[in-house]
User: What shape does this take?
Amino acid sequence: MNLNLQIDHANAADVSREEFRKNYLLAARPLILHDFASLFPAGKLWTFDYLNKKIGDFQIGVFDNSVKTNTAYVHPHLKMPFSKFTSIIQKNEETPYRIFLFNMFKEFPEFRKDFPTPDIIKGPLGDIGFVFFGGKNTTVRFHYDIDCSSVLMTQIIGKKRVILIPPLYNDLIYKVPWSSFSLIDPDKPDYEKFPALKYVQGYDFVLDPGDALFMPNCYWHYNTYLEGGMAVSYRSMATKPSDIYNGFMNTTFRLMFDKAMNNLMGEKWMEKKSEKAISSANVMMDRIDREQKNKMIFQS
Assistant: This one.
């Protein structure tokens, strides 16, 4: 994998809604907006201490990365007081615990005034915003957002490493059928097991506290919390009819079918999906190899 593509950077205060939508949202081009959080009260107010004072006793759903899952959209593995969770992730120790898709604005509407929907991302999905937390070296498996929406993810607390892969490499990254994740570990690519990865290009960068990342719809991403951290994501509906259709199918029929087959067949269903993912990548890799070989013959 060549992760040396250079992502665009801009100061958040210098980018207008019109410029953002023309050059990035509609152009499906990723962007890092520096100091984005500082445009909102949350950029200064939201610390772990502040949040604990507000919602420390709230029983929060927590995901455990040590529990293997073979489908998208699973339920939290355990619950604990929010303050207990934040005490775990603030330690300088690795932890498998993270909070995923927490609808904090629904549970605690008073937080909305601290971080209202950013003007640049406002659209049909309105005020849909989710909050994410993780501890040191906690990872979020390699995936694209199942609803095919574009995402503006603002890193409020802590640093986060992101590997970002454009969707044009869908057929080379061992995408698991009926799912929104892949067989590979982008941080430690196994070229012997997954040789098609040699043709994949992408981005590798670190978000600092206050940075916002715009991820165009269907971009694959692999996130690693470098320290205890928090991020807020707002969404924008896909602009292409095919992506809107796939987003609807992914979150309804395909997801239900995948869960049903997983319940019925267990690991055998995952084995079948893995075989298909490898077969599809091999077909595309062979096609590229033949094209390159023919090109070399033609040029000679």
The two ends are 28 Å apart (CA to CA).
